[in-house]
Design brief:
The chain is an alpha/beta fold. The protein has helices at about 30-40, 75, 95-100, 105-115, 120-125; strands spanning about 20-25, 60, 80, 90-95, 125-130, 145. The chain has a domain at about 20-70 and about 105-145: Ribosomal protein L13 (Ribosomal Protein L13p, Chain: A).
Length: about 150
């Protein structure tokens, strides 16, 4: 007897149905917001989640410059970049990063929560972060998400 109903069906990236979501990051705590967004980028919010394939959705984040941290993280949290040359370490606090490149705060937080493989890079390409309320993705008709 062959029972077909018990087989687990894996969905491939080509068959995945992807949606577009828009998130307003104004007054949102960075870590909590990014944890939700990383889960959506991976596709973990779908019943068809497949760990070895990119089945996640597209995400547009607006107002990235109005995100917030809890505690004293604006002064104490540091972002380290190293150029692979002697003495090539550059350190920026969260406040400095907000002043220069506010969208990178969210991008780096989400990338740190994704797999560190080619699959993680493919997932990160579906994230679009903007500092203001304007974005060039109106044609995709994104759904708004509230957290």
């Amino acid at each position: 007897m062959n029972t077909l109903s018990y087989r687990t069906e894996s969905i491939s990236a080509a068959k995945a149905v992807r949606k577009w979501y828009i998130v307003d990051a104004e007054n949102q705590v960075t870590g909590r917001l990014c944890a939700h967004l990383a889960s959506i980028l991976r596709g973990k919010n779908k019943p068809s989640y497949t760990p070895h394939d990119d089945t996640g959705d597209y995400i547009i984040v607006i107002n990235a410059d109005k995100v917030r941290f809890t505690g004293k993280k604006w002064a104490q949290k540091e972002y380290h970049d190293y150029s692979l040359h002697p003495g090539g370490l550059t350190v920026a606090t969260a406040a400095e990063m907000l002043a220069k490149h506010p969208e990178r705060i969210i991008e780096r937080a989400i990338r740190g929560m994704l797999p560190k493989t080619k699959l993680g890079k493919a997932m990160a390409k579906k994230l679009f972060v903007y500092t203001g309320t304007e974005h060039p993705h109106q044609a995709q008709k994104p759904e708004a998400i509230k957290f």
